[in-house]
Amino acid sequence: MPELPEVETIRRQLAPLVEGRTLEALTVADARWCDPLDPREVEAAVGGRAVRALSRRGKYLTWELAGGVSVACHLRMTGTMLYDPPPDQDPPHARVTFLLEEGHRVVFCDPRRFGTGELLLGSAALEAFHAARLGVEPLSEAFTAAHLRSLARGRRAPVKAFLLDQTKVAGVGNIYADEALFRARIHPLRPAGALRGAQLGALRDAVVAVLEAGIDAGGASIDDFRHADGVQGSFQHAFLVHRRAGEPCPTCGTPIRKLVAAGRGTYVCERCQPVPRRRSR
DNA sequence: AGGTCGGCCTGGCAGC
DNA sequence: TGCTGCCAGGCCGACC
Fold first, then answer.
1. Which of A243, A264, A270, A271 is catalytic?
2. Active-site annotation holds for A52
3. pLDDT tens-digit profile of A95-145?
């Protein structure tokens, strides 16, 4: 599912293809995408505007257009943004088409229809949108160990839930949370506020490391994720624990266990990631 | 206030 | 074999 590295992979691929060109038309085939706005309203607001930038913040991919008009897209679980798919017919599950100059197009496909597009009028609206729902950008200089400590202080929620909270750290999802916690040797059910400074420092470093590794691998394709050209990412082959229940821990050989944390399937090595007090399970 | 949980949605797969 | 039903999960809103 598209998390920060997957969205960044798409952004890096599409940006040079769309920036500086004109978005001649937007076609919204599924009204749910921009609900509660009427698709015609969104189409009219963006059609004919030059693409100033294709940017990313957290898991949002945003078309920044002339006149301060933006469309912030979220791919959720199963969304992809395909560039110039075969022209004779729409690809499966096509929901929105961004028509560019000379017949080029970007098609948003989404089997589960969870993906969304938000129309934002004015740069202040885009900033307010980000500020309201997104915390620190983990690949920015602002994401320091001290910052993570201040975010975690006093929090009793499991550290996995804390990592998945986009208003704290933006862009980490289920895959990268599991991988970061394993690398930092922290059990996902430990309360975030109970972690010592050194552990939060290790977690900060691990989050950065797994996100960068994910980007280097072109993201992870475990469900429907594809690059803009339809190619799969490869980070799923580099998972150390995620989706590897029963396989040996790459560090100590203990079988990896699957449990539920923050309502999500969660993979741990309970030897390398000591279980919080009480007993296992 | 802050944490937990159900609903959204559909492809894929377990189970019969 | 074919059908049913359950599960995955990011995010939001409802609840405690």
1. A264
2. no
3. 999 999 999 999 999 988 889 999 999 989 998 888 888 999 999 999 999
**Is A24 noted as a catalytic residue in this protein?**
no
Kind of pairing between the strands at A94-99 and A264-268: unpaired
**Burial label, A72 (beta-carbon count in 10 A; 0-12, 13-18, 19+):** buried
For residue A135, say whether its CB is under 7 Å from any atom of strand C. Answer: no
User: Does the active-site annotation cover A264?
Assistant: yes
Encoded tokens for A93: 């599950």
Q: What is the pLDDT of residues A51-97, one digit of tens each?
A: 999 999 999 999 999 999 999 999 998 899 999 998 888 888 899 99
> How many Å apart are A262 CA and B3 C1'?
10
The CATH number assigned to the domain with range A4-133 reads 3.20.190.10
**Distance in angstroms: CA A55, C1' B11:** 30
What confidence tens digit (pLDDT) does each residue in A158-212 have? 999 999 999 999 999 999 999 999 999 999 999 999 999 999 999 999 999 999 9
Strand B positions closer than 7 A to protein CB: 2-6, 8-11
* Burial of A191 per CB tally in 10 Å (0-12, 13-18, 19+): middle
Partners of A65 in the β-ladder: A51
What is the distance in angstroms measured between the alpha-carbon CA of A152 and the sugar C1' of B13?
Answer: 39
- How far is the C-alpha of A238 from the C-alpha of A160, rounded, in Å? 20
Assess whether A21 (CB) lies less than 7 A from strand B.
Answer: no
Give Cα A259 distance to the centre of its chain. 22
For this structure, is A2 an active site residue? yes
Residue spans of the domains in chain A: they are: 4-133, 145-268
Q: Which nucleotide is at minimal CA–C1' distance from A172? A: C10
Per CATH, domain A145-268 is 1.10.8.50: yes
**SS3 call for A128:** helix
